[in-house]
Specification:
Layout: H1 4-12, H2 30-43, H3 47-53, H4 59-85, H5 88-117, E1 126-127, E2 130-131
Antiparallel strand pairs: 1-2
Length: about 140
């Protein structure tokens, strides 16, 4: 849910080391290697391709490329989340549908449990023999 600016700031602050070259070595350069992995996952490029493309960059410059890749990768996800948050009635409908489906699935089991332990399925937390939904 972070904004593109927040993502960029967080990646700028990522811990690297004192070597300015961009190279992948998980044991000796875990911070830079982590950035390369994130870049690979967001861009679909291999680690080798990324290292070749970044061979003339320092880690500060490379962080900006990683930030751009992460922002672009997350953009459609963030948009979908914001769209959902702006439509609370849709979210309530989804929750209600899910609650109804869950109730229909568990109702026979609940009735069987009540029968086996010798209690009535119509307790105060029940509504007309049905499990009450919170939604």
């Amino acid at each position: 849910m972070d904004s593109p600016e927040e993502i960029t700031e967080k990646i700028k602050k990522a811990v690297t080391d004192f070597t300015s070259a961009v190279s992948y070595d998980v044991e000796k350069r875990p911070g830079v290697s982590n950035l390369i992995i994130m870049h690979s996952l967001c861009s679909g490029q291999s680690i080798e391709e990324i290292c070749v493309q970044a061979e003339r960059l320092d880690t500060g410059q490379y962080k900006m490329i990683v930030a751009e890749a992460v922002v672009e990768y997350l953009k459609p996800i963030r948009k979908s989340l914001l769209d959902l948050l702006n439509d609370p009635m849709y979210l309530l409908d989804v929750l209600n549908d899910g609650a109804e489906k869950a109730t229909n699935l568990c109702q026979p089991v609940w009735e069987n449990v009540c029968y086996n332990v010798g209690i009535s399925p119509n307790h105060s937390w029940m509504a007309g023999g049905k499990i009450k939904s919170r939604f």
